[in-house]
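Predicting holo structure, pyridoxal-5'-phosphate bound.
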Amino acid sequence: MSWQHRIRDALQQQRAAGRLRQRIINQQGDARWLAVEGQRYRNFASNDYLGLSHDPRLIAAWQQGAQQYGVGAGGSGHITGYCRPHAELEAQLADWLGYSRALLFISGFAANQALIAALTGKQDRIFADKLAHASLLEAASHSPAALRRFAHNQATSLQKLLTPQEVGDTLVVTEGVFSMDGDSAPLAALQQLAQQSGSWLLVDDAHGIGVVGEQGRGSCWQQQVKPPLLVVTFGKAFGLSGAAVLCDEDTAEYLLQFARHLIYSTAMPPAQACALQASLQAVQQGDELRQQLAANIARFRRGAQGLPFRLAESSTAIQPLIIGDNQQALALASQLRQRGCWVTAIRPPTVPPGTARLRITLNARHQAQDIDALLETLYDAKG
Ligand SMILES: *Cc1c(COP(=O)(O)O)cnc(C)c1O
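Done. Tokens:
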């Protein structure tokens, strides 16, 4: 088959399965509102949990950073792209989260790829939660290490995999707060099992950092666990983009030698690191924002009790409504849009078959009237 045929075929199959992904142009949006084709919608699809993406303090920090350092790093961090704002931010993150070192990456996806590729070899094993993010599972499947998946959030399922091994090392991989379900991993149990077996635990806390734990320090802090490898990302509660790996001194030096995403890729713009420093400060001082978010979550969950859909066991900003059927989930999302609420329907293979859902995300900028409008529309649409 030629490339052209193969590509057309693949697209045809996606279309036939009702799985064709299409982008929309968000003409102007923030955490609370977005505009698509001239229509304004209440935004229930954003990961900007604290609404920091439009915070004037962050915008000013980015502008000042650009004045001082320009808009680009000019090279890999291994050449001349590593600047003072990067070094400061790394030190601040390490200090805040109680690790010896933090290393910046341009995205969470890159951090996970780099980490797993640099650490794991042919003799090793990766045991990952079944629902771990695509960036983790993709990296694990590219790794020459053996990949096994354990039942979602089931420490006993992991325990069965952790049999004594003659050769190689084991990396246990999970998220702090799961992106499609909003539930939290049993980190203490996982960390204990990992420790007992001499394995390392990697926690990707993309959806927990900034949102849960004292000062927003995330899931690990909240559950009083310190895994050897912690990935935090800045595209969600931090309101920007980028990521950091938190680890010990030796691991950081090792990653600087062997993580190709650091060596062969342009460093994050220094101005962005300036904005991230401002964002870190806003997160640290963000108790009011987190309280507002918690109030919104409580309001939504109270109101959604009477709906004929299963509300996921989630106390976080991610509040999925499990619809089950793909077409019904799509129809519901479309009805919500007609009534001015933007909610994304998530279908397999992103989630397990038969669990198509509305992935409703709440944030600190929503007002009570936004939550009520969403609930009213859901009650009207169900019939
Ligand atoms: C969003 C997300 C990522 C990817 O992070 P980016 O910085 O957006 O590339 C990684 N892991 C999890 C769990 C995520 O939700």
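The mean pLDDT is 96.
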